[in-house]
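Technical annex B. To support the medicinal chemistry partners, we prepared a structural model of the target in complex with zinc ion, based solely on the information shown next.
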Amino acid sequence: MRKEVICKNCKKSIKINSRANDRGELSLEKGKFFEVKCRSCGKVYEYSVNEVSATTNSLFGALMFVFVLLVMAIVGYYLFSNYWGKSFYMVFIIPTAIAIPGMIYFTYLDFMNKGIRRFNRFRR
Ligand SMILES: [Zn+2]
């Protein structure tokens, strides 16, 4: 989960380095108000924890997606070339085995999105 504030001068997003999962944790870590220096324009302003919003790290998400597709392709290719037609049950087993990495990925995505929604909902 990526946390950011919008610069009060140039309106660009500034990344906040924190492992906090919600605004409560963030205010314990940084205080209710804290100063952030913008990397684009160099101006320092005071921000409140309520101005911090959580988003997904889109590059990481895209890389994960490609990785999961790759795993599914490799697993699928391996199973099809070695086991297809060996048993009737492979008609069910192989698609299930291929779907597992995808299911894990979507569970993870759902978990991340819940965390982001939770972060953005609670205000201090
Ligand atoms: Zn700025």
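Notes passed to the chemistry partners:
The chain has two domains: 2-55, 58-121.
The pocket of zinc ion is lined by residues 7, 9-10, 12, 38, 40-41, 43 (CB under 6 Å).
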